[in-house]
Write a structure and sequence with these properties.
The protein has about 70 residues and is an all-alpha fold. About 85% of the residues lie in helices and about 0% in strands.
């Protein structure tokens, strides 16, 4: 494996990855305030729903566990 083989295997993919990454970063834009608040609300609602689901699963699990274990 000579210098050319190493260049094809290691260097070229890294250069292509760096080029693609820079292209992606240049295309990305910061969200405006309206878009950010919409994303924040959706994320908050998702966290709340998952929290309530976890709470109710735990609420149901405690009596079932007491019945099975016979505390």
């Amino acid at each position: 494996m000579g210098e050319e083989g190493f260049n094809e295997i290691a260097i070229q993919p890294l250069r292509q990855f760096a080029k693609d990454s820079m292209h992606l970063v240049k295309k990305c834009t910061k969200p405006d305030r309206k878009e950010f608040t919409a994303i924040a609300k959706a994320t908050g609602i998702g966290f709340a729903i998952m929290g309530f689901i976890g709470f109710f699963v735990k609420l149901i699990h405690i009596p079932i566990n007491n019945i099975l274990v016979g505390n």
